[in-house]
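About this split. The held-out portion is used to measure sequence recovery: a designer receives only the structure tokens and must propose an amino acid at every position. Recovery is the fraction of positions where the proposal matches the reference. Here is one held-out target exactly as it appears in the evaluation file.
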């Protein structure tokens, strides 16, 4: 059954207080709930009380202290209905029984490595107890947890600990009270044998907050970075957005089995251990950066998500788009603003654009869904953040901040909509944003066609911009979007040309609102090179013909780092696409001198940020190349890109070797943005040097460099970078090193994930057979989402050359895996399906093979709603 935004009605009953008593037991946890309800005055007609309740056994129901007989309530199809309730306030009590040990879906209350934890967003609370499981019912929670003293010394829930004690029968209890009313999706409970790492944070108003990170004993020494990240995020939110923390304690718990990255439960975040635990020997620079970003993301939710929450799940981007924007800004300040911007634009272009052009395309505010878990997407999160960023660009930082303040002032303590957010921004700006809101209702990626006409006599440039947007399921005809287009002009020597109406004199922000619009630039002394869509100022595709010469000027001189990087990507893309065509016609692949020249300049650049150079050195992703093709040929894309890498490695061998030597960092590993950038650039050099030629063998002395780096690295970043090069260059040596790696790290689940990723991503022939064998390896389990993502998703979603084997073997494998996973964990099964949803993009043969798998999955008995929705949307 599909739920629609337009059918929203306010809740008939509100719940002022919820008292929970949870008596933990692996197979039979008893939950007693007392709900203090009252009719919602907004609903005029008297209605029955309807509570959600799923996958639980209902033992008892009482109304105002009187047990109800079987005829006085109805329980079934996920609902508990009490037809007759008093007109005024009343009290409902229920007792339910649940099975955390049998919960492999990891939604609701479940066991992970013997510890209890919860994941309630979006609709998991209904599997714990009967309750109106919708975010616009906000309640004050008091939770008593009863558990085994020996196996569960730690008992946690949201808010403040108000009582605890021993029950004398080998059990103890703890009572937590959360003073802030919250929707039930923000409820959390954790119980188990965990150790606590503590520190403090003093808010700018002088309150001291206790910070606790709870982990398994063996991970005690891996929490420093996460703790530092939390403190930085708390300070940053005060400085940038004026937001202080509100409770006296902030707790983070790391668990190994988690469907997503982390969860912002009030005062008690639950994290995938991947986003908490780090030591130089076990975590890479990317992991360090990810931890800092996710810790910050969940912390920022305390204001954008918890204090102000969503009215309904269609508004998910209200909290997620905004919080992603906030975490992006935080990371930009922690590492480097341009580097972060390039990373984020890459995510949009490589993955969100693809989602937006496929069968799962949906607006930032979806109009309907079958399973909300399928809509925790790149569109809601990342495009949602781009929409916020466009507001930031349009309003400017000060006005945007006033809009944020107004939003907090108006809606603190409420469950609101995206319209409420935009209204606060419009009021701060004093301008109408009605047209801008089309970003929330129209899916698809707008495509801009730009024409430049320069008139030397009139010293005038006319830019004509036309926008179109392909049809998507919610709207065939698109109305024009409203967006900021940041533009600069360079002269033939690469100097920035002064512009009228440009706040910083060289970048002008054009506002596009029509289907076709003309923009005049006056007083332009010579033919300009156009730097269009600076800083990726809108999430759109741009068609603007520029010669290799113009791209060369931008690559060398554009003061906008994003466009400087993008010019190199465009040049690379241009040559890659040309060579893919040649390759498809059986011609050998060649690398153009202009491209080599550009790369050589990067290698000799001693001024730019190494992290920036590392990104500029990288060729466009296979995904981004595929998006430029009418019919995607994944095998050709892989082969040509791979051959490019090998030829570049050969042509620039001495410069790469020199870069590799000079970028060596003296002293022990330390995580910092600068060092991470140097390592990325250095390992980028190594990867070019070790790129195996398609038909030929790699120079053994280069291979040895990789082996040597692997053996002598004092940190995981350098070890895994070298190992990855070796694994993709030489099967025999790679296999030997992988065995060594496994022997060393088999006790550490997060490092084992890396071992699986390397094998699943191996681009040498025969990977599928090795992946299949790994599914029965003792280090792999279908019950841990990180393991499934590392092995199955890495192969199916990133190893394009092999997953898309023309015989359909990769598709067949994925079909099997989805069928196997669905009964265990529907959320993960549905996510694994993503590569198959793109079937229309390929040639007829692959289309047929991919479709056949979707049909086979669709014909399974008792399929989850999660998988069914993705399959059905893909086929129709
Ligand atoms: N709100 C969490 C975050 O953005 C994501 C949790 C989503 N979980 C889910 N099962 N859908 O950090
Ligand atoms: Zn979030």
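Reference sequence for scoring:
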């Amino acid at each position: 059954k599909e739920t629609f935004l337009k059918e929203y009605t306010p809740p008939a009953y509100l719940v002022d207080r919820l008292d929970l008593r949870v008596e933990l037991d692996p197979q039979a946890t008893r939950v007693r709930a007392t709900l203090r309800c009252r009719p919602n005055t907004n609903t005029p007609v008297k209605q029955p009380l309807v509570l959600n309740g799923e996958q639980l056994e209902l033992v008892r129901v009482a109304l105002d202290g009187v047990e109800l007989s079987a005829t006085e309530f109805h329980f079934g199809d996920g609902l508990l209905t009490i037809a007759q309730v008093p007109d005024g306030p009343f009290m409902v009590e229920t007792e339910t029984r649940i099975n955390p040990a049998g919960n492999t879906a990891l939604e609701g209350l479940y066991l992970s490595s013997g510890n209890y934890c919860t994941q309630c967003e979006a609709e998991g609370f209904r599997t714990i107890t009967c309750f109106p499981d919708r975010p616009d019912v906000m309640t004050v929670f008091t939770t008593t947890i009863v558990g085994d003293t020996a196996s569960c010394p730690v008992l946690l829930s949201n808010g403040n600990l108000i009582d605890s004690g021993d029950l004398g029968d080998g059990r103890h209890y703890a009572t937590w009270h959360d003073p802030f009313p919250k929707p039930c999706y923000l409820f959390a409970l954790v119980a188990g044998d965990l150790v606590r790492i503590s520190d403090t944070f003093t808010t700018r108003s002088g309150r001291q907050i206790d910070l606790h990170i709870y982990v398994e004993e063996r991970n005690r020494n891996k929490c420093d970075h996460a703790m530092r990240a939390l403190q930085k995020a708390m300070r940053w939110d005060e400085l940038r957005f004026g937001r202080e923390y509100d409770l006296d304690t902030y707790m983070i718990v790391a668990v190994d089995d988690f469907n997503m990255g982390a969860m912002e439960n009030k005062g008690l975040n639950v994290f995938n251990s991947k986003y908490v635990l780090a030591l130089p020997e076990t975590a890479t620079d990317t992991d360090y950066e990810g931890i800092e970003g996710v810790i910050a993301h969940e912390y920022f939710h305390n204001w954008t998500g918890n204090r102000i929450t969503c009215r309904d799940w269609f508004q998910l981007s209200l909290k997620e788009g905004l919080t992603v924007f906030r975490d992006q800004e935080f990371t930009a300040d922690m590492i480097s603003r341009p580097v972060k911007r390039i990373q984020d634009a890459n995510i949009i272009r490589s993955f969100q654009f693809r989602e937006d052009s496929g069968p799962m395309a949906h607006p930032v505010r979806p109009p309907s869904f079958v399973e909300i878990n399928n809509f925790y997407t790149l569109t809601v999160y990342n495009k949602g953040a781009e929409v916020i960023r466009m507001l930031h660009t349009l309003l400017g930082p000060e006005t945007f901040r006033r809009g944020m303040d107004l939003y907090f002032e108006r809606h603190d303590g409420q469950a609101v909509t995206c319209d409420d957010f935009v209204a606060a921004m419009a009021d701060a700006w004093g301008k109408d944003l009605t047209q801008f809101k089309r970003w929330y209702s129209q899916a698809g990626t707008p495509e801009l066609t730009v024409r430049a006409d320069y008139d030397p006599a009139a010293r005038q440039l006319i830019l004509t911009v036309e926008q179109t947007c392909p049809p998507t399921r919610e709207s065939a005809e698109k109305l024009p979007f409203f967006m900021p287009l940041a533009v600069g002009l360079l002269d033939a020597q690469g100097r920035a040309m002064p512009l009228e109406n440009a706040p910083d004199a060289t970048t002008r922000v054009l506002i596009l609102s029509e289907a076709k619009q003309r923009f005049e630039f006056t007083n332009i002394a010579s033919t300009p090179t156009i730097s269009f869509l600076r800083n990726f100022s809108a999430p759109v595709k741009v068609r603007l013909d520029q010669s290799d010469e113009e791209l060369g000027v931008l690559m060398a001189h554009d003061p906008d780092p994003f466009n400087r990087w993008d010019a190199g990507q465009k040049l690379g893309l241009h040559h890659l696409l040309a060579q893919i065509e040649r390759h498809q016609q059986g011609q050998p692949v060649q690398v153009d001198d202009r491209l080599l020249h550009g790369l050589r300049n990067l290698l000799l650049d001693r001024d730019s940020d190494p992290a920036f150079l590392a990104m500029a050195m990288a060729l466009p992703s296979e995904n981004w190349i595929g998006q430029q093709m009418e019919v995607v040929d994944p095998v050709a894309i892989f082969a040509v890109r791979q051959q490019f890498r090998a030829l570049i490695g050969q042509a620039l061998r001495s410069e790469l070797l020199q870069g590799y030597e000079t970028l060596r960092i003296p002293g022990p590993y330390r995580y910092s943005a600068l060092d991470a950038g140097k390592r990325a650039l250095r390992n980028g050099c190594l990867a070019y040097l070790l790129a195996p030629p398609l038909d030929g063998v790699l120079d053994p002395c280069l291979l040895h460099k990789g082996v040597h780096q692997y053996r002598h690295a004092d940190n995981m970043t350098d070890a895994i970078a070298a190992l990855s090069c070796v694994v993709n260059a030489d099967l025999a040596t790679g296999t030997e090193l992988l065995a060594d790696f496994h022997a060393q790290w088999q006790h550490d689940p997060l490092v084992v994930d890396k071992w699986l990723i390397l094998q699943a991503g191996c681009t040498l022939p025969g990977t599928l057979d090795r992946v299949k064998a790994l599914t029965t390896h003792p280090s792999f389990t279908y019950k841990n989402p990180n393991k499934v993502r590392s092995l199955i998703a890495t192969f199916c979603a990133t190893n394009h050359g092999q997953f898309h084997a023309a015989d359909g073997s990769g598709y067949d494998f994925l079909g099997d895996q989805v069928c196997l996973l669905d009964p265990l964990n529907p959320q993960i099964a549905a996510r694994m399906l993503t590569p198959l949803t793109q079937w229309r993009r390929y040639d007829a043969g692959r289309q047929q093979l991919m479709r056949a798998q979707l049909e086979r999955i669709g014909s399974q008995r008792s399929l989850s709603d999660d998988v069914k929705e993705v399959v059905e949307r893909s086929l129709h």
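Annotator remark: The chain has a mean pLDDT of 97.
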